[in-house]
Amino acid sequence: MQATNILILLLSLGAVAFYLGRSRSLAIALPLGGIRKLHSLPSYYGMHTALWCGLPSLVLLGLWLMFDQPVINSVVISSLAADITPTDTASYNLLLNKIDNVAQGILPRKGQSDSLIAAANHMVSLQQISQWSLTALSLALSTTGLFWAWRKIGSEFRARPAVEKVIQNLLLACACLAIFTTLGIVLSVLFESIQFFRSVPIYDFVFGLDWSPQTAIREDQVGSSGSFGAVPLFVGTLLVSAVAMFIAVPIGLMSAIYLAEYASKNVRSVAKPALEVLAGIPTVVYGFFAALTVAPFLRDLGASVGLSISSESALAAGGVMGIMIIPFISSLADDVITAVPQSMRDGSLAMGATRSETVRRVVIPAALPGIVGGIMLAVSRAIGETMIVVMAAGMAAKLTANPLESVTTVTVQIVTLLTGDQEFDSPKTLAAFALGLMLFIVTLLLNIFALHIVKKYREQYE
Amino acid sequence: MSKSVDNLAKIKHSLTRRNRAEARFRWYGRIAIFIGLSAVAVLFVDIISKGHGAFQATYINLDVSYNQDVIGIDNLMDSTQLVAGDWQALSKTALRTKFPQVSGRSDKRELNNLLSSGAGFDLKDRLMANPLLLNETESIWILADDDIDTYYKSWLDGDAYAARLSEKQIGWIDELHQQGLIRLQLNTNLFTRGDSREPEQAGILGAVMGSILTLVLTLLLSFPIGVSAAIYLEEFAPKNKWTDFIEVNINNLAAVPSIIFGLLGLAIFINFFHVPRSVPIVGGLVLTLMTLPTIIITSRAAIKSVPPSIREAALGMGASKYQMVLHHVLPLALPGMLTGAIIGMAQALGETAPLLMIGMVAFIVDIPGSFTDPATVLPVQIFLWADSPERAFIEKTSAAIMVLLTFLIIMNTSAVWLRKRLERHW
Fold first, then answer.
1. Residue A70 to residue A130: CA distance in whole angstroms
2. Average pLDDT, stretch A414-443?
3. Chain A contacts of B225, Cβ < 8 Å?
4. Which one of A444, B45, B88, B264 is most buried, counting C-beta atoms within 10 A?
5. How far is CA A317 from the centre of its chain?
6. How distant, in Å, are the alpha carbons of A18, B94, B119, B141 from that of B138?
7. Tens digits of per-residue pLDDT, B271-282?
8. Gap between the Cα atoms of B220 and A200, Å rounded
């Protein structure tokens, strides 16, 4: 039976359990003098029965679906005939795929070797056994749960606290998902990175000046050893981010100041949402805009004044990224500027300072920690931004600080290394995870530090 | 006495300078806002001016005779014959009868290039839908090739782009135009087909369906989980190290670059749990993890805005803490939570980078119908088309962007509307 069918069956069984539990509690209450003699409302008895009926089998179903295919695979592989037993991981995966395809009937059985067909038959029979035992086990589990909970119902049974305990644990599990996500990120990136650092020393990766991630197809190939020095990528990333911040910080900050200190209510109510439209536009749209409009425009502009600007320049990618970040900086800065107490402004104005002097000498210094925190969050965003640079920055790793040239970034390399077919034993693929690790660490540090500053600052004036 | 006059003069003198500085400062602010707003305007004008043409396509009117000898079939019910039939011959013969003077192999090839390479199959579909047409002749509008389309549109605009056409082809188009046999028509292919290597046949329906499937899964997973987590953290969590740790995690996850979630999906879901690649399930799972922090944070804000007096009244009437939350706090906080969910979904709809990692960049012609069919999503389709060398894809890409932005605008305005309409101020 299919997993979805089992799921539907379990859900309907749960509904039946709810009804049974509820009616039993009512039946028990009737001779005692109505439901006020029960500890909890009848629906809680129903819910308790339904939970005991459904939850254990749902957990079983989830675990089973996660682990049945790997277990079946290893059983099939370990019982293979000697003539097709795989020797390394690549041929192992290939063979497994082939057996699976034959078993599902995607590949024709005709023309396959006998041992392969035997393995495929084995797999089919194991899958059937697994399906039937899953059905039988989950049904048995839910009927047992139903019966057990149904038996427990009595006027003294405290159904509501029992149900609430289960709900509380479910809520806690949902909240903990955030921790598991972080853990999953750290583990997945770290595990593959460690494998990568086994073949490429960490020192060469972090301080190497040459990035050309190719792996040899043949042993004697020219330039067979790829080099994995990530410094050009770091420099490229910083260059693009610097261009972005050069545009976003002044514009974002000045708009925030104008909107918070000068603009009339009407202007503010129009200009603020209009600026925030920029934040809602998907990055792939910015990438398209950078690659097809801004980059050719800059190249032609450069050509007309005698400058040679690459058609995949850091300037185009960074500039458009800066536009994307403007609303991010302006809304964060707006928050901290409006949080500065009015009394400080009034004090300054009363001393005869002009409004711009008040802003520059009083408001900005008071809001500075928050603004710096916001800028750091924006930097972390610029470093991690992917689509704009994938579409508008180059692929060639060049060690340069000239924004008119083409550079590549960490995120571009992750995407190029990981799109298409991957093999999880070549350093080329694993390098992407090492880059991901670097990216994660840097953005994490920036975020923690920035959030800390912003939080501390907010508390100051509250 | 003279000293204070001196100071007064100094102040008066400096006042003009200070007032000028004040005016300058205001102008800086105005200029900054002007730059920001003009960036919005330039972006939209650029996309619309590039993409508006894609909603129309060039069609050529020809007399097609569905001659069974030309196709090489004698029975429309026989599927092997249908597969083997030479359907391209239909459109080729029609062109040949229109321009009988064309001879020579290369000229004929150029003539055939006037029509889309899928034109024969469109005619096949037409014949299958109307079997009575067999051996009849009808005058029909047939889809033109993308180069013809690009040329014809640019020529109508007065700035002809003829780089990919020959002199003869331009002559034929001129002739067709004078006879009124070439025209622009609503491009239905754009909304009814999946991806294609031929720009004139490529459509966004496949990507839109993929986006819908992925988003439905994301919403089904992330909304209940996010709301539950928010309820726990706001109403039940004890103030301890563990709760603080959860909060720090959520805040950090909200700022982790999206591409990292792609790496997570690749390593955990695909490599470890062997979820198949390129399917909406894995896309939905990754986007769920990505949007969860947004939904949790907005839901918590919504719960926080419910005044404590409501809680106290419920507890005072003898409700248990769960009854208080489920029956009173949750319904009041729901509009705010829904707003947050819509914003999170809008974010997920525009997301591209993590989906590149989990193989949703495949070239997929079929329109996905379930969570386990290989699919791509709208932003990834935009990325793929933007990478294609054919000039006609620029127009298609911009049109797809316009569709994507329309969806996003609808979602965001409905979020704003929902907030204005349903949110209560206490």
1. 12
2. 84
3. 174, 177
4. B264
5. 23
6. 66, 10, 15, 10
7. 887 778 888 999
8. 42
Mean pLDDT for all residues in chain B: 88
DSSP 3-state assignment of B186? strand
B300/A106 Cα distance (integer angstroms): 49
Q: Specify whether domain B205-422 bears CATH 1.10.3720.10.
A: yes
A177: chain B residues, CB-CB within 8 Å: 225, 229, 292
pLDDT confidence of residue B263? 92
User: Cα separation of B124 and B145, whole Å?
Assistant: 18
Tell whether A5 is within 8 A of chain B (Cβ): no
Nearest to B352 among A188, A283, A422 (CB): A283
Backbone angles phi, psi at A200, to 5 degrees: -120, 120
Classify A158 in phi/psi space as left (phi over 0), alpha (psi -120 to 50) or beta: beta
CATH class of A225-461: mainly alpha
H/E element holding B8?
helix B2-51
- Chain A residues within 8 A of B233 when measuring between CB atoms: 175
Complex-level ipTM: 0.91
Do A119 and A76 contact (CB within 8 A), yes or no?
A: yes
Interface test with A, best of B10, B22, B25, B411 (most A CBs within 10 A): B25
Please count the residues of chain B.
426
Kindly report, residue by residue over B140-163, the tens digit of the pLDDT: 898 998 888 888 888 888 888 877
Nearest to B66 by CA among B39, B85, B45, B40: B85
Residue B330 has pLDDT above 90, yes or no: yes
| Top-confidence residue, A457 or B34 | B34
Q: Within the 294-333 window of chain A, which residues sit less than 8 Å (CB to CB) from chain B?
A: 323, 326-327, 330
**Looking at the complex, does the CB of residue A291 fall below 8 Å from at least one CB of chain B?**
yes
Distance CA A282, CA A298 (A): 23
Distance CA B393, CA B300 (A): 44
pTM of the entire predicted model: 0.89
Cα(B222)–Cα(B228) distance, integer angstroms: 10
Interchain pair A384, B252: CB under 8 A: no
B39 chain-A contacts, CB cut-off 8 A: 278, 323, 326
CB-based contact A357 B22, cutoff 8 Å: yes
**Which of the residue ranges A219-223, A422-426, B377-381 would you say has the lowest mean pLDDT?**
A219-223
- The nearest alpha carbon in chain A to B400 belongs to A285
pLDDT score recorded for residue A95 = 78
| Residue type, position A368, single letter | L
Q: For position A312, what pLDDT does the model report?
A: 85
Give B258's contacts (C-beta < 8 A, 6+ positions apart).
A384, A386, B290, B351, B353, B354
CA distance linking residue B120 with residue B93, whole number of Å: 11
The answer to whether A356 contacts chain B (CB < 8 Å) is yes
Closest to A66 (Cβ–Cβ): which among B273, B350, B361?
B273
pLDDT(A417) > 70: yes
- Looking at residue B373, what DSSP letter applies? S
Query: Percentage of chain B with pLDDT > 90?
Result: 40
Mutate to test the interface with B, among A89, A285, A286 (most CBs of B within 10 A): A285
Q: Is the Cβ–Cβ distance between A155 and A36 less than 8 Å?
A: no
Is pLDDT at B309 greater than 60 in this prediction? yes
Q: Which band of pLDDT confidence, cut at 50, 70 and 90, is reported for residue A284?
A: very high
- Per residue in A146-169, pLDDT (tens digit) is 999 988 888 888 888 999 999 999
Chain B residue numbers touching A251 (CB-CB < 8 A): 32, 35-36
* Domain residue limits, chain A: 3-157, 225-461
Chain A residues within an 8 Å CB radius of B226: 174
Tokens representing B177?
Answer: 């135009």
Q: Tell me which chain A residues have a C-beta less than 8 angstroms from the C-beta of B228.
A: 170-171, 174-175
